[in-house]
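Hi P.,

Sorry for the delay on this. The queue was packed all week, but I finally got your sequence through. Input first:
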Amino acid sequence: MLKNAFVSLLIFMSVLLFVNRIYSLFKKQHILSLKVMTKIGTYHFVLILTLYFYFFLQPFWFWLLSFGSLLVFPVVLFLTVHFQQQQFYGEFLRFLSMVILSMQRGISFLSSFETALQSEKWKQDLLLKRLYENVVFSQQEEVAYKGVFGRFIGQTLEELRAVHRNQHQAIDRLCNMQKKLQDRLNFRQKSRQIWLYFHYQLALMSVIYFGLLAYIVSEFHFSTYKTALFLSFSCYFFGLVSLLMIVRSKKWRI
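Then the structure:
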């Protein structure tokens, strides 16, 4: 009994460490508001704590369910953030069009930017405002992103600062940025089918694996295959994490 309790405590501390690390990384992305991130993190912590007390003397089940939650919550959060990022491209293209039209009427860049921000309620209002603050205030902490979207934000920020410094070339530079973004969106639309097929295969593999796992646990004596199931789920978990890391690190070139 004491041994099981100690193992459960070690698993509990390890899971909390992973949870803290995962949500810290998402927090730096600034796509979701701090309020939303806090709610999701709180729900996840309560779930792990509940599992800990319920399976206190059953470390294997606690390990299986708690690390399973590390798949469900972060994957859902990752998909939400990914959707928000993809949504930003199209919205920013429309935002740029409004800024360009405003400047063509003789209004300055910053005034056009402010007018476009206030013209309607943007879905990515938080990120657009942070871009504006980073252009106007040089001492402002920059928007921190990683990966493909991070490079896009960094390039966009540099270009907007250049537009702010060189007002006589502002419209031409913004039109050029608009064209590049439109080409990027066209490319992504053509390649989306390939990535959808990849995620379909990943989802199918997961359904088959967990279906077989549920069947084995329900039909056969669990203690007989406990070690094999532990190794199997470990391989699945680390294989899935490795695969997601490879996909995220793949460079997108157009």
